[in-house]
Structure formats: structure tokens, C-alpha cells
Design goal:
By secondary structure, this protein is α/β, with parallel strands linked by helices. The protein is built from 16 helices and 13 strands. It catalyses: tRNA(Tyr) + L-tyrosine + ATP = L-tyrosyl-tRNA(Tyr) + AMP + diphosphate + H(+).
Length: about 400
């Protein structure tokens, strides 16, 4: 099928609603007019569109920033379209150079297998597993062989490849670029050919690779996919993108109480951004809630609702309710029902050494900093004396709002 097959079908209200769902929170939809035609054709013929998301299993765990594109997949899945969760087990052997200033070390097949299993298990908390097609790009990349690879490489020029920002910057900085890195966008684009994709999703950093899919589909005589880029989610600080290295993230496998409390810690401004990208509430419901807040309702009510929705998605409604109750108890100075039990010897022990030994502070100097900031309590009383020594006994020790331990000192 080529682009000429995109006949004009009636653009119904349902098509316009599907377009609005598609564009919610997105950065770019390219080209929008072709996507409207695809939606109209699907509506007229009853033939669902094929929507692809490729993920390289480069790390075993994902955080809620990664779920922005998964949420979009789920929204399109709920409209009746076929979503394809593509695991890049072959492309992981190359290493994605997107946004890199150096060659990414490839993973071993064993690492890829372990990470892929974890990735899909976590993604299934957002996608409907019964309606998700799972594919591995080794299915078609390995049979392509060396002859097929050469033929594929002939369909794109070096000049156009060097237009890519990371390649361009590395070349002019005299930073090495390995020839195999040119294969990555070609192989990702070829995935779209193999899957006959109608729409491919990705982060804004994937735009070059997504456009490669459009180019190669046209080269192979197929109807070109549309591409949808989603923004990178700001982390808890509201400034930097969510990242484990910046410690501003919420892991989707984190404990419910921690997840709930972290969502409540974000700013009132960032909350609305998260509602758009992470919530499954309709935009009409979100706008109504925003008007209530502007009319005087406490913004914390909206934030609690968001925290419960996100926590329930990954842990269930009961865990979300319990996490809310736990947060209420802690805000009143209460102690959670279940906290770690720690047995230490060496009484009398200085408070700094005790915090380090109990795993509540990484070092004695950090413990002292926490004490200076008023963040340490022993049996609900704030500790202000860094020279405090605790004698034999059992104490509830608290650091910040979320770290507790019941320490028995002998």
C-alpha cells in the first residue's frame, strides 16, 4: 500500500474525538492530515490501525516517566486500535546513539533477555495485555542477513544521517562515531516496514529514528506511518527530566506508601502537567477540577486524587487507600504500622553513628546535616543535639517524613 491508498473517508465526530485523544499532551503529530485520514478509514472500514512502540531493554526497571508513551498507547488501545509492544532485542545489540555523546556499549543477549521480561511485566500494568501484540525485532532483523543489510543501507545517504544532531555534534567535536551506529536508525526504521506500522510513538529524542520509519516504508512501497512524539516528563523537582541518576523519579515498582508520598511532594504547577501526561481522566474532567481549585478548593485535594490514581494503577485500589491513610497518620506525627526492626549493640551510642548503623543515613556527616536541618526524631521528639547518646533501650527513630526504624540498642 502506498500513500495514494489514503482515500478520503468521512471525518465523523468519533474521528475528531480520536484525534483529540491522540494529540493530548503530545509534542508533535507528523503529518496530522494523514493521521486524520487513517482514523477516518479505520472508522469507515472497521479495520484497526497498527500502533507501534519500540523499547530497547537497556535497564531492568522503568519509572513513571517511561509510562508517558505507554499511557498514550493505552488510550489508543481503548479506542480499538492494535498496539504493538516491540522489544528491541536485536537493536539492543547495536546500542541506540540517540542523545549520546559517545558510543553506547551494547548489551549481552543474556542481559537483554532478563531486562525484556521485566520491561514487559511492568508495561503490562499500563497496557491491556489481552489486546497487546508483543514482538521482538530479532524476528526479522536476523533473517535479513548481510545482503539484506547492504540493501537496506543503500536506501539512506550518509549526508542525511549526519544531519542527526548527536552525529553532527560528535563529528565536529572529533568524537569517534562507529559505523555500526548508523545501522541503529536504519534497523528501527525497518521495524516499521516489517510491522506495517500506521503510527509509531516515541519520546522527543527519538524523532530522527521515527522519521526514518516513514522514509523506509515509502522506499519499500508501503503507506508511510505517522509519528507521534511525547514530551519527556519532568521529575519531582519540576525542572529536570525524570531520571534515576538525578534522583527525581518514581519507580513503578516502588512501595505504594513511597509512591503516594512522592506524588504529593510535587508542586501545584507540576501537578497539572502530570495530570495531562499520566492521568486517565478525560481532559474535560481535569479542566473541571482545575476550575474548582481556581475557585478556592484546596489544591491538595487534586494532588491526593492524582496520587491515588497513580498508586492504584501499579498496586491496586486497596493499596492506594492504605497509602493515603499512612500519609495522613505520618502528617499527624503518627508512626506507620510496619517499620523495620533494627538490633544494634554498643550502648551508649552517638545519634550520628546510630543513624548510619540503622541504615537511616549514608554517613555520620550526612546524619549530622539531617540533625541540623531538624529532620531527625527519636520517639517523636526532634533531635537538636548532635552529641546526643542513646543508652540501652528501644526507640522509634524517624528521618524526614518517610524513613522509620524501631531500634533496639544493647
Amino acid at each position: 500500500m502506498n500513500q495514494a491508498s489514503l482515500q478520503n473517508h468521512p471525518v465523523t465526530d468519533r474521528v475528531l474525538e480520536a484525534l483529540a485523544v491522540t494529540k493530548r499532551g503530545c509534542e508533535e503529530l507528523i503529518p496530522e492530515d494523514a493521521w486524520v485520514k487513517k482514523l477516518a478509514r479505520a472508522e469507515a472500514t472497521g479495520q484497526p490501525l497498527r500502533i507501534k512502540l519500540g523499547l530497547d531493554p537497556t535497564a531492568p526497571d522503568i519509572h513513571i516517566g517511561h509510562t508517558v508513551v505507554l499511557n498514550k498507547m493505552r488510550q489508543l488501545q481503548d479506542l480499538g486500535h492494535q498496539v504493538i509492544f516491540l522489544i528491541g532485542d536485536f537493536t539492543s545489540l547495536i546500542g541506540d546513539p540517540s542523545g549520546r555523546n559517545s558510543t553506547r556499549p551494547p548489551l549481552t543477549p543474556e542481559q537483554i533477555k532478563v531486562n525484556a521480561e521485566t520491561y514487559y511485566k511492568q508495561a503490562s500494568l499500563v497496557l491491556d495485555p489481552a489486546k497487546t501484540e508483543i514482538r521482538y525485532n530479532s524476528e526479522w532483523c536476523i533473517p535479513l542477513g548481510s545482503m539484506g543489510m547492504i540493501q537496506l543501507a543503500s536506501k539512506y545517504t550518509v549526508a542525511r544521517m549526519m544531519e542527526r544532531n548527536d552525529f553532527h555534534d560528535r563529528f565536529h567535536a572529533n568524537t569517534p562515531i562507529s559505523v555500526h551506529e548508523f545501522l541503529y536508525p536504519l534497523m528501527q526504521g525497518y521495524d516499521s516496514v516489517a510491522l506495517k506500522s500506521d503510527l509509531e510513538l516515541g519520546g522527543t529524542d527519538q524523532k530522527f529514528n521515527l522519521l526514518m520509519g516513514r522514509h523506509l516504508q515509502a522506499e519499500y512501497g508501503q503507506e508511510a506511518q505517522c509519528i507521534l512524539t511525547m514530551p519527556l516528563l519532568e521529575g519531582l523537582d519540576g525542572v529536570e527530566k525524570m531520571s534515576k541518576s538525578k534522583n527525581n523519579y518514581i519507580g513503578i515498582s516502588e512501595e505504594p506508601n513511597t509512591m503516594f508520598a512522592k506524588v504529593l511532594s510535587i508542586s501545584d504547577v507540576l501537578m497539572w502537567r502530570w495530570y495531562t501526561l499520566l492521568s486517565f481522566k478525560s481532559m474535560a474532567d481535569i479542566e473541571a477540577l482545575k476550575k474548582e481549585i481556581e475557585g478556592g478548593r484546596n489544591p491538595k485535594d487534586a494532588k491526593v486524587a492524582l496520587a491515588k490514581e497513580i498508586t492504584a494503577r501499579f498496586h491496586g485500589a486497596a493499596a492506594a487507600e492504605a497509602a493515603e491513610q499512612d500519609f495522613i497518620n505520618r502528617s499527624k506525627g503518627g508512626v506507620p504500622d510496619e517499620i523495620p526492626e533494627v538490633l544494634l549493640s554498643g550502648a551508649p551510642m552517638g545519634i550520628g553513628a546510630l543513624l548510619k548503623a540503622a541504615g537511616l543515613a549514608p554517613s555520620s556527616s550526612e546524619a549530622n546535616r539531617l540533625i541540623d536541618g531538624g529532620g531527625v526524631r527519636v520517639d517523636s521528639s526532634v533531635v537538636s543535639d548532635k552529641g546526643l547518646k542513646l543508652d540501652v533501650g528501644t526507640f522509634v527513630v524517624q528521618v524526614g517524613k518517610r524513613k522509620f526504624a524501631r531500634v533496639t540498642l544493647t
